[in-house]
Design brief:
The protein is α+β, with helices and mostly antiparallel strands. It contains 26 helices and 53 strands. The strands form 13 sheets. Strands 2-5-6-9-10-13 form a 6-stranded antiparallel barrel. Strands 17-16-1-19-20 form a 5-stranded mixed β-sheet, with no helix packed on it. A 5-stranded mixed β-sheet has the order 50-51-49-52-53, with helices on both faces. The longest helix is centred in the C-terminal third of the chain and has 48 residues. The protein is globular.
């Protein structure tokens, strides 16, 4: 018989548990010192840490292996007890903080700042001891960038990812371990823990303590209980040496107060994650429900079609189980009979966007290439709800944009997004559930009408609505030369065979406005709501909302109202949907949350609601007939992000009627409960009554009476309703009860209870509630001598003053403390004591006049005149403020011009910043000059107007998301940029470079952007300006239509820019930098002319020549060159130069300048070659990494993409991406020929995650697939 392992039994009676009279000892209790916790990734592989364990301000957070001391955090709840916390690092005593409100920025540690919500976090419970951590200010989540050590910690939108899930455990741990040999429990503890028992054993600060127990059969280890900080922990049964308990002392408040995680009920990905470098992936998903309950999904796809090689299509996915699983069943592909392969038409544009000439490219044109068309973007699915034309109810229809491609694989880079200038919005249909599709018609065409100066002319972004037999297609239209873009619709009534004329939906008077992406829904009340994005209409882009009586008439010039944002985040690509219960929901691409209107007619407030679905470009909504609500979108990025995934997620099911999870039976009905008594109805706000003219109501109020308007006012407000239905009694005096009623009605008739306070105020009188309310709030006190109120007595002037004063005090009026002079009243001695304070406090004459109804109205007139006078005085101040605001931009521009000219003294600098309201805190600044060539302009275009157009586009395209100042100076557009770090310079350079290329493509403007050096203060921006000027001058060397960063082109030449006043030779030095020999000669002669013009004596001449030599010496030193070496190490050079004649002096200056210029050129070439070599080495070392890219290489080299790309192509003759691809293919060729590896294995080894795409690229280079190439190689060897 096999011996059974002995279990540790005696713990129950051995002094560990207290159970009635069986206690031998006492319970174990472990006290944790402090509240330090470890925050790790959900798999506990990496810990949240401060980079390098630093205690410095603004140190970035990372993940790191551990645990270590700098990875311990203390959760300090805010003083309001709201379940929000500061996350304090135990090592640095600093808190985790967001740096700004932007999504994707790194998190840092900072000293605690009161009132800064960027330092406050809440915990959202995902599962046991796993949380999301959400920032209060930004509403973004603490996110690890990648699942690896040394990952950056960012703040990002909600994602369904383990990178946003954090596990908590105590920085101090307690373990209980069974010891069956000695019948004992060993307690092992870490830092700062004390364990005690009644037996007296104790240990502190780390180590272990063993409690030895008397043997006894029949008891198990799991019967023993361990108490840690008062919380009971049950131990598991365990064998010898097994750990039977690990206690993580997570703060109980955190667990109790953490929000419940809002998660989607299900999350599905319809396509796998892909990696196709240089191409947007999957965008604009659309999900619809067929009449039989089948779900269909399509999206804009970055993966080449499986049907037509090299073209793009709209894949069709199907789900039969309410989204549980998806299967690809077909795809919508361009019909080549409608759009056959074609040549491009090249158009040259003139002034105001009018075509100057059109050049047709044919097969005879040199270099002409046939280009296939492809369904590129903006798919829209729709299910016909009833028969129309030849199409039956339930037919799937799809609209999308067809465009020409450069070749079978690449989008047209020059167009920015496919070939959208030559686009076609096509209409397809399917009668077999999306398996096959037929082209039916073209809804609209773009590109044929030319383009306006503001952009290409596509037609795109369609959306379908069905209404009373009409299939309506809304879409965005750029073909109208009067508008950058507008929203229109067309109607078909014959099943899509023909479409009517376009009608405007949103077409703003501002021709630069770009309303886009229209989505329409019908509201519960039968009206219609349109949402759209407000590009070039608002800054930032927002969601416009319009409501119309029908889906046809939208008042096109009305922008409508704007959807609110969340902490400054708004977002485009909106979607609107009406739920089955009538609620209307709007979402945008930038927010995980959606907005639900408090009124089903869309006129209430928009309330944000978390969905659990991630933010993503161009999401859409769908509620099934069975109630489930879905959100589909793009997970993993936005419009310009690679490797996106399509998600379809079910949310809110619990809130919707008649819904149950797929595959689960409905819950059985609960037994009926006895009816609860009906709650009393909430008081219903009555409809506003139709306004009645008091002249028609009261017989004693007539045309021409001076008090008509005042009686109308108090009647409309319900303050005074007349003595009876036909009499207002304007000449009669008021009684005390009436005046109390007037005040009571002014206050809105608040609720009150009757009390027998005044014997002469009975319950149920018209004035009873008014007197009770006034008495409760000490507005009236009654007559103290009799205890009566005397409601029918006429109200005296002092009584009215007292009541009004007390009412003003009740309302906390601001000016009741202003004292008046009673000596102006002859009868002041007769003022009652109770009224003296009121009269003394400057109660106006209109409060002391006789108090008939008419005269009270007269008093109100005087009050109005007084207030009008005060208002007019305030308006004068406001007019001055308005005028100041009007001229402020000009004042700011003049100030910045003075700054770049270096004319602002340090003593005036701070004052001007404050006076001109310049809010640029830095810490860094940079100047950019946009120079528009006057020699290269479109035919018929005025150069000045072109320059103004460039200035406008710079303002709209480059200043939207940054803090900067833009102005015009010396014919150039100037930008003064605020920067947070020097690392932003590369991205800024690339943005400017893209703008220059865009300006040439769209406007025909040859723009050069010169980017100056970074400076630490706005006061020094003149140095950056000089650097920008110098960068612009390099256009003769590097070309126009691009950005030139002075720090990149002369990194080894000039670390600092020498201001103009420091040298008389600045123009010569600029020519030396550029290397233009003719310009050098011209500037050298100018220097000689200045030398002879300004030197009247031999001493002055000698001094001037020595300054020239000194200038050369300083220039070389500033550019890391040895002047003595360049000058030939001539002894006594200063003396020799002063003895040269004019011709020799001129030649010497020219020769020295040329030699220095050649040295600079050599240095530049050497630097460029070294940079290219470094880049090639990076490729050789990392070509097998899938994520290596142009961005990665430029980041490693510390240069902008634009500069690196131009230098790389100039030096190697090919773009970097082509070099990378060729290198990978060369390595792949070796592996194909020399190994038996499968294609997918070779793909992985050369950096391709998708074997299909690898095969496509291989075939493109070698002409055949890898397998055929291997076979042909073997045949060659056999020969």
């Amino acid at each position: 018989m096999k011996k059974r392992k002995q279990r540790l039994a005696p713990l129950f009676l051995a002094g560990v548990l207290a159970v009635g009279s069986l206690l031998i000892g006492g319970s174990l209790e472990a006290k944790a010192a402090g509240a330090d916790h470890l925050v790790s990734t959900a798999d506990e592989g990496q810990y949240l840490a401060v980079s390098g364990g630093s205690t410095a301000e603004d140190t970035e957070l990372i993940t790191w292996t551990g645990p270590e001391e700098n990875q311990k955090w203390n959760f300090q709840e805010t003083s309001d007890g709201s379940g929000e916390y500061y996350l304090v690092n135990a090592n640095s005593n600093k808190v985790i903080s967001a740096q700004d409100m932007r999504e994707g920025t790194r998190l840092v540690q900072r000293s605690t700042t009161s009132g800064d919500d960027r330092q406050i976090w809440s915990f959202i419970r995902v599962k046991e001891n796993v949380y999301r951590i959400k920032n209060k200010a930004t509403r973004l989540y603490l996110t690890a960038d990648v699942s690896a050590s040394d990952s950056r910690i960012l703040q990002k939108n909600r994602m369904d990812s383990a990178l946003q899930q954090w596990k908590m455990r105590a920085g101090t741990e307690i373990h209980a371990v069974a010891d069956t040999t000695d019948y004992a429990v060993k307690i092992w503890i870490t830092d700062g823990v004390t364990v005690t028992s009644s037996q007296g054993a104790a240990v502190e600060g780390g180590g272990s303590v063993t409690f030895t127990l008397a043997p006894r059969d029949g008891y198990r280890v799991e019967d023993m209980k361990l108490f840690v900080n008062g919380r009971e922990q049950v131990l598991a049964d365990g064998d010898n040496g097994e750990k039977i308990c690990t206690v993580s002392d997570i703060t109980e408040d955190l667990t109790a107060k953490a929000e419940a995680d809002v998660t989607c009920l299900d999350g599905y990905v319809t396509i796998p994650e892909n990696d196709y470098p240089g191409r947007n992936q999957c965008l604009s998903p659309r999900v619809v429900e067929g009449l039989d309950g089948t779900l269909y999904c399509t999206f804009e796809n970055g993966i080449p079609s499986e049907i037509v090689e090299g073209e793009y299509s709209f894949p069709i996915y199907e789900s039969k189980d309410k989204g549980e699983t998806w299967k690809r069943v077909g795809e919508v592909v361009n019909d080549d009979t409608v759009h056959p392969d074609s040549y491009y038409k090249i158009t040259r544009y003139g002034a105001a966007g009018a075509p100057a000439e059109a050049v047709e490219v044919t097969a005879d044109t040199e270099g002409a290439v046939l280009h296939p068309w492809s369904l590129q973007c903006c798919p829209q699915l729709f299910v016909l709800p009833e028969d129309q034309g030849d199409l039956k109810a339930g037919t799937l229809v799809c609209a999308g944009v067809a465009v020409p491609l450069e070749d079978g694989a690449e989008k047209i880079a020059d167009a920015g997004y496919g070939g959208l200038w030559d686009s076609s919005l096509d209409f397809y249909y399917s009668t077999d559930g999306g398996r096959s599709w037929e082209y039916l018609s073209t809804i609209a065409e773009g590109g044929e009408n030319g383009r306006n100066i503001m952009g290409y002319d596509p037609v795109w972004e369609p959306f379908f609505v069905y209404h009373e037999g009409n299939l309506i297609c809304y879409y965005s239209d750029e073909t109208d030369p009067a508008h950058n873009q507008k929203l229109v619709y067309k109607i078909t009534t014959d099943g899509g065979k023909t479409w009517g004329d376009a009608a405007d939906v949103v077409s703003m008077s501002d021709s630069n406005a770009r309303p886009g992406m229209p989505i329409v829904t019908q509201l519960e009340n039968g009206k219609w709501m349109l949402v759209y994005e407000t590009v070039n209409m608002t800054n930032p882009i927002k969601t416009g909302i319009k409501i119309a009586d029908d889906p046809y008439n939208w008042n096109p010039t009305d922008a409508g109202t704007m959807l609110p944002g969340i902490n400054g985040t708004y977002g485009g690509s909106p979607y609107v949907y009406t739920l089955q219960d009538g609620r209307v929901v709007v979402g945008t691409g930038s927010l995980s949350e959606v907005f639900v209107n408090t009124e089903n007619d869309g006129t209430g407030e928009w309330v944000a609601k978390e969905t659990g679905a991630p933010a993503g470009y161009n999401r859409c909504f769908l509620q099934l007939s069975t109630g489930e609500f879905f959100i589909s979108g793009t997970e993993g990025g936005g419009f310009a992000t690679q490797n996106n995934k399509i998600f379809v997620k079910r949310v809110w099911e619990e809130e919707l009627p008649g819904s149950s999870k797929p595959g689960e039976p409905d819950e059985p009905d609960e037994p009926e409960k006895p009816d609860e008594p009906d709650e009393p109805d909430e008081p219903h706000e009555p409809d506003e009554p139709e306004r009645k003219d008091v002249r028609d109501v009261f017989l004693d109020v007539n045309d021409g009476d001076w008090y008509v308007d005042y009686v109308q006012y108090v009647y409309d407000k319900g303050i005074m309703t007349g003595m009876n239905p036909t009499q207002f009694a304007p000449a009669e005096s008021l009684c005390r009860a009436q005046f109390a009623v007037i005040l009571y009605r002014m206050e809105g008739c608040p609720e009150t209870e009757y009390a027998k306070k005044y014997p002469d105020v009975a319950d149920g009188e018209f004035y009873t509630d008014a007197v009770m309310w006034a008495s409760e709030n000490k507005i009236v006190t009654g007559f103290t001598d009799t205890g009566l109120f005397k409601p029918a007595d006429p109200i005296s002037r002092e009584q009215m003053a007292a009541m009004m004063y007390r009412y003003a005090r009740y309302k906390e009026a601001e000016d009741i403390e202003v004292k008046g002079d009673l000596t102006r009243f002859p009868d002041r001695q007769s003022i009652s004591d109770y009224a003296k304070e009121a009269v003394h406090l400057e109660i106006k004459e209109y409060m002391l006049k006789p108090i008939s109804a008419t005269e009270l109205s007269d008093s109100l007139v005087k009050l109005k005149n007084t207030l009008d006078k005060e208002r007019e005085e305030k308006l004068n101040v406001k007019k001055l403020e308005d005028y100041f605001q009007e001229v402020l931009p000009k004042l700011q521009s003049n100030f910045f011009i003075s700054l770049i000219e270096g004319r602002v003294g340090e003593e005036d600098y701070e004052r001007f910043l404050q006076n001109y309201r310049v809010d640029m805190k830095g810490p860094l600044f940079c100047c950019i000059i946009f120079h528009t060539s006057e020699n290269d302009v479109p035919d018929g275009m005025n150069p000045l107007l072109l320059s103004m157009s460039v200035e406008r586009e710079v303002k709209q395209r480059l200043t939207e998301n940054c803090n900067c100042q833009e102005f015009i100076y010396m014919g150039n557009t100037i930008l003064i940029m605020e920067l947070h770090s020097e690392e932003e310079m590369a991205q800024l350079t690339d943005s400017c470079d893209r703008f220059c290329r865009w300006a040439w493509r769209i406007m025909g403007a040859a723009v050069t952007a010169g980017i100056g050096t970074v400076c630490n203060s706005l006061h020094d921006i003149s140095i950056s300006y000089e650097g920008a000027r110098e960068a612009v001058s390099y256009r003769v060397l590097y070309g126009t239509k691009r950005a030139i960063n002075i720090a990149e082109i002369v990194p080894k030449e000039s670390k600092k820019t020498v201001p103009l006043e420091e040298t008389r030779m600045q123009d010569l030095f600029r020519a030396i930098h550029v290397g233009d020999q003719e310009e050098i000669r011209k500037e050298a002669i100018k220097e000689i002319e200045k030398l002879h013009k300004n030197a009247d004596t031999i001493s002055q001449y000698n001094l001037a020549t020595m300054e020239i030599v000194s200038g050369f010496f300083k220039f070389c030193a500033n550019n890391s060159m040895d002047f003595n070496d360049i000058s030939g190490n001539v002894q006594n050079l200063y003396e020799r130069v002063t003895q040269l004649d004019e011709t020799s002096m001129t030649n010497w200056i020219i020769n020295m300048s040329t030699a220095i210029s050649e040295k600079l050129k050599s240095t530049r070439n050497s630097t460029s070659r070294r940079m290219i070599t470094d880049a090639q080495n990076i490729v050789k070392q990392r070509y097998m990494e899938p994520d290596i890219s142009l961005d990665e290489v430029c980041a490693d080299l510390g240069v902008s993409n634009s500069y690196f790309s131009s230098i790389f192509k100039k030096e190697t003759g090919q773009p970097f991406v082509t070099y990378l691809t060729d290198y990978r293919m060369d390595r792949a060729e070796e592996l194909v020929l020399n190994t038996d590896e499968k294609s997918y294995k070779i793909a992985e080894k050369v950096g391709y995650q998708d074997a299909n795409y690898f095969s496509y690229v291989f075939k493109k280079k070698f002409g055949v697939s890898p397998s055929k190439y291997r076979a042909s190689g073997k045949k060659e060897n056999e020969k």
